[in-house]
Amino acid sequence: MENHKTGQHRHCRESVMVDIKGIAHFSIPVSDIAKSTQFYTDVVGCTHLFSPPQGHMAFLDAGGVCIILVRHPAPINPSLDDHNGVHHSFAVGDSEAYKAALDHLREKGVEVLFEEDRQGGVVNGPRAYFRDPDGTVLEYIDLTSYERDRG
Questions:
Q1: Mean pLDDT for each 10-residue chunk of the chain (151 residues)?
Q2: Mind listing the domains of the chain with CATH numbers?
Q3: Of the candidates 78, 94, 84, which has an alpha carbon nearest to the alpha carbon of residue 142?
Q4: Coil, strand, or helix at residue 28?
Q5: Which of 17, 70, 73, 109 is the 20 to 30 Å CA partner of 44?
Q6: Following DSSP, what letter does each residue of 1-21 receive, concatenated?
Q7: Where are the beta strands (DSSP E) in the chain?
């Protein structure tokens, strides 16, 4: 996993020209702002920050990262078999918080597509995949495994 000469993970570049401090935001295209805002707040666990009066966006907070839901006529809608790894991953607490998050999904009627306890990958540990109302694949991952593997 690590480059023994630099101490960096193999997927990191050795020389970085831009000093990125983090992610400012990322956008998720959705067909219905109100329905998706409710899903991402009530089910996923994000906090609604604000929505412009035009009704074409909703700004959410996910543990300090801003997500912008953007109304779009053709949202991401990959099939599980052909999603090419495209998904949005949310790290949730420790193993107890992870299990509680899965219970919460099921209580809200959200189908868990599959669960795995990945070993030997870049990021190991328990994770579960599910879909938002437009079919975008989302993931919950046990934060303790994520932090351990990020080093």
A1: 44 66 86 96 97 94 95 65 72 90 95 88 86 91 73 60
A2: 22-73 (3.10.180.10), 76-151 (3.10.180.10)
A3: 94
A4: strand
A5: 73
A6: -B-TTT--BTTS-S--SS---
A7: 25-30, 47-50, 57-62, 65-71, 88-92, 112-118, 125-131, 137-142
